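Standup notes
- HV: blocked on the assembly model, inputs below
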Amino acid sequence: MMLEKPAPVLEIRDLSVSVGTDEGEARILDNAGLALMPGSIHGVVGESGCGKSTLIRAILGILPKRGRATHGSIMLGERNLLGLPADTLQKDVRGRAIGFIPQDPFQALNPVFRVGTQLLETVRTPGDSKATRETKKAHVISLLKAVQLPDAEHALDRYPHQFSGGQRQRLLIAAALASAPGIILADEPTTALDVTTQLQILKLLRGLAIERGLSMIFVTHDFGVVAQLCDTVTVMYAGQTVESGPVAQVLKAPFHPYTQMLLACHPERAKELAGIPGAVPSPLRPPQGCRFNPRCPSARPACSAGQPPRVAPQPGHAVRCVLHLDEAAA
Amino acid sequence: MSGNDAALLEIEDLVTEFGGAKAFLGKPQRIVRAVDGVSLQLKPGQALGLVGESGCGKTTIAKTALGLVREKSGTMRLDGRVVSGLAPKEARRARATVQYVHQDPGAALDPWWSIGHALDETLRIHGISDKGERTTRIDEMLRAVGLDATFRTRYPHELSGGQQRRVGLARILVLRPRIVILDEPTSGLDLSVQATVLGVIDELRQRFGLTYLFVSHDLSVVERMCEEVAIMYLGRIVEIGPTKEIFARPQHPYTRALLAAAPRLEPGSLNDTPALPGDPPSPTNLVSGCTFRPRCAFAAPKCAEARPPLRSVGERHSAACVRLEETGADTPA
Ligand SMILES: Nc1ncnc2c1ncn2[C@@H]1O[C@H](COP(=O)(O)OP(=O)(O)OP(=O)(O)O)[C@@H](O)[C@H]1O
Ligand SMILES: Nc1ncnc2c1ncn2[C@@H]1O[C@H](COP(=O)(O)OP(=O)(O)OP(=O)(O)O)[C@@H](O)[C@H]1O
Ligand code: SF4
Ligand SMILES: [Mg+2]
Ligand SMILES: [Mg+2]
């Protein structure tokens, strides 16, 4: 597996995003980072409100209202996407180099247009002759079949409200795949699916990564899905990326106390359905230093002194935690 | 839960269809038989899980029960009183004690109102005139779903997906209805918040004697929350019974496939888990006999003869498959 280490296709470095609210500035991303390697699937996990959606939406320049990136870079190959004008991102990047599956299947489709109108628009081919329209249509229908949508041939004539929640989610997956992008950003794309349908979709995505060299960032709450699907994973807490590494290593020997606690409450490892005591802090008043420190059983004074630096005790497996400061590998 | 309590909500042989009529400026729509002869009983204080493939008709059952969608046939009784066959407005009024927590977390939230304002308004409309009581209830409920007081002044677009879902739950539970249909209440929630929210749902059930119809894709959640579960496939219930029993001894081939597909914490396990073969089932073009037949590992010629009825396979446990004796379902899958 590990040949000569290739360069990431997409890399986020030290990204900070702040939003203005009525009660002051909220720093919802705090020096977050992530590297996506070619042909790999990278999971992003963390509790609700940790900034997972903010992180992947920032790649496409979609920031919250009154939000701005205050620091960092987002490299797509040699190109820094951060700071590119919105229309350049919209024209050259979104739907071409990068396909996006948004989190909310209910809000992402326009209720007044037929599904066909919305999906065919995402397939960008030069010319609009009858022949190309028919080819486009056939292409989209084949994708709808691939995502297990029943009656795919007739789906394009229907309106969004005529589909179930999970069916809408699958329409969005097909829409993101339609322009055959090299990178997919998927924000919890299977939360509305039963496990048998989810399994089929995960197999489809895995297959595309292998066959077409598709690279993907896959946001999820479910460490089981990360285990099944992903090669590498980043764990986020309260706007900070606290750990990243190969999935097998992170599952077997997690470094960060937060990752350890997240894994310990997975139904397979916990006797009862349980969570980590306490809650993710409001980004308006985040704790100083490592933002996990108020909930961390191993916290010590150094934890609130400043954000711990990123160190890699194992090659490719990095953590930001004072407990691991001395273990940094070269 | 004693078994001989009279049912609070009773649904008998419910059929709900969409389409058929000529669409605006279009061809006639194909008929979608979303619910195809479903019978259910909710006893007071019970939590019944409803699980099944995406698109199998779970939300449609919920909307029909609420009176938001009209049933084609079948009977519905609430507290022994027939509430089916009514015009939509009347139907909704007769079923007002049934409340619904929407599958779409953003649906119930008005973008122009802060969370606190929205909850306050909900309570006011429902006749809680005392400002002090409204405030207490809102604070209590926000805390219960794991949101601190700073959320009162925030707007829906300032919330993450999971936070919106929690507000949606708070909005319905703050009304203290008798029957609550929870449609995927924990999808998109992480385990910590899920544990909190499930704790709240459970506690409210005890405290106010609520009755739940609990729609969920998450099998471990259903296992914990519901003493009984109904498994659906393509508009029909294919297995129903005590949750413990069904998880330990799933009988119907679909139930067994479903339980086997749950993701495990094992790297690369995707390849070892077989997917259901064949095309996804179509509710517009139903096959003869058992509708699971095209994808079933055990299908035989006799499966094509008639829709298998639910048959008893244990105490309060039934399954709709004609080959149970031959498929070795008794040994845990
Ligand atoms: N416009 C905004 N104003 C203020 N706070 C915001 C705004 N948008 C997002 N936030 C906050 O930023 C944090 C991160 O939100 P984000 O949607 O990225 O979380 P998430 O990890 O995707 O959560 P979920 O799993 O629930 O989808 C949350 O605490 C949210 O409340
Ligand atoms: N208004 C409508 N018009 C036509 N067909 C519809 C309509 N609403 C739902 N359907 C169809 O009815 C079937 C059942 O939909 P329903 O929303 O009840 O599924 P579900 O079990 O809730 O699925 P999910 O788990 O994906 O939410 C689906 O095939 C869906 O496409
Ligand atoms: S009736 Fe036949 S096709 Fe249907 S589940 Fe049973 S064995 Fe399979
Ligand atoms: Mg999100
Ligand atoms: Mg639904």
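- HV (later): unblocked. Residues A 164-165; B 58-59, 103, 183 surround magnesium ion (ligand 5) (CB under 6 Å). The first strand of chain A starts at residue 10 and ends at 21.
- Next: hand off to the docking folks.
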